[in-house]
Amino acid sequence: MRVKRTIGSSLLILFFLFTAGGTSMATQFDWLATDSAPKNYPMEIVRGDLFFPKEGKLYVPNKKTLHHGWGEGVSIHIVGDDTKPLPERLEITFFSYTENQFYKGEFDLPYEEILKLFQDGYDSPKINEHTTYKEVVVGVAPGGHVSVWLSGIDKTTEVFSGQAEKIEVDWKEIIDNPDISREVFIQEEIEESLKPDELQSLKQNGVPFGLWETYRKKYNWEPEFTGLKAPNRIKRVIYFNGEDEYLYYPLDVEHANKPLPIPKEMHFNWEWPKGKPLVFKLYFNEPEIFDTFNQLGAQGEPLKLEMRMLVNEEGKTLFSIWLKNSKDEIFLKKTKLKNYGIPKKKDN
């Protein structure tokens, strides 16, 4: 009889803990910390800690050269308890190789926003179930820029952006080897991280300070498909600010009239004229798409990013991408397109 009462009480506690109007009331989750830095501008986290509200912390992976892409987590260290409180504060020290400069920042994170995002979770088409975030991604960039994202299957959401300050740190924190000078080590790390053309671009153009803050600007835009049957979902949109997600088409309530960052990539399936399904992957040219968004949406005008597919008089299929407002439209001619057929599923 005691067992039955214990089970019933536990179920009751779990019910109130995890459900309230369809929203989880949990404050501890199974998550890990990871690190990030922009491509072509190698960085290294010397030390970083995510502090919990009452006590305790989880360290951010460190001692690794980062250059894999803004918002993309790199290292995962599985330490401590599986479930743990969410972070309310970040302390971080890092090094920017392209500047030969250390930075340090102490930041209060938007704990209530982070908690709500974890509690609410989201629907994932990839696994066909409701889930929540699994990683807290800490990103560092030249000029001392710091961003924090929550990341999970099908979704990455930025929750914080801040500015660290320049400091001096003992070089031994990077490498304790008197046989290699600081200048030589830095040059070797940069050359190992960048391709020859990327290295040449860095030498010619220098470090684009402030770039990562411009990535955060959002515009009132939505996708549009014309010419053929549109997909009901854009499988993945990767934004320049490090976020990514899927979008229903037409946009659902969550995204309708909601400003969005400028897209870096878009992936979707579209049916070819003869009925053959294809995967489309669009890679936008950064200078072109930023100039176009600024030109057509600088005053907050509603914009449409149109994927236009037409069949001409000769029966040839033409695909193009346009950004337009109520008065003008501009052809995004530098966008790269990759497409390939979708393999048919084998019958069991």
Could you explain how this protein is built, in words?
With 348 residues, the protein is an alpha+beta fold. It folds into 2 domains: 195 residues, no CATH class; 125 residues, no CATH class. Helices cover 19% and strands 40% of the residues. It has 6 helices and 25 strands. Strands 3, 4, 5, 7, 8 and 14 form a 6-stranded antiparallel beta sheet that branches. A 5-stranded antiparallel beta sheet has the order 18-17-20-21-25, with no helix packed on it. β12 and β13 form a beta hairpin. It is globular.
What does the secondary structure layout of this molecule look like, with pairings?
Elements: H1 2-18, E1 28-30, E2 32-36, E3 43-51, E4 57-59, E5 65-66, E6 83-85, E7 89-96, E8 101-108, H2 111-120, E9 122-124, E10 129-131, E11 135-141, E12 145-152, E13 155-163, E14 165-167, H3 182-193, H4 196-205, H5 211-214, E15 218-219, E16 221-226, E17 233-239, E18 244-248, E19 260-261, E20 263-271, E21 277-283, H6 286-297, E22 303-311, E23 317-324, E24 329-331, E25 336-341
Parallel strand pairs: 2-11, 16-22
Antiparallel strand pairs: 1-6, 3-4, 3-5, 3-7, 7-8, 8-14, 9-10, 11-12, 12-13, 15-19, 17-18, 17-20, 20-21, 21-25, 22-23, 23-24
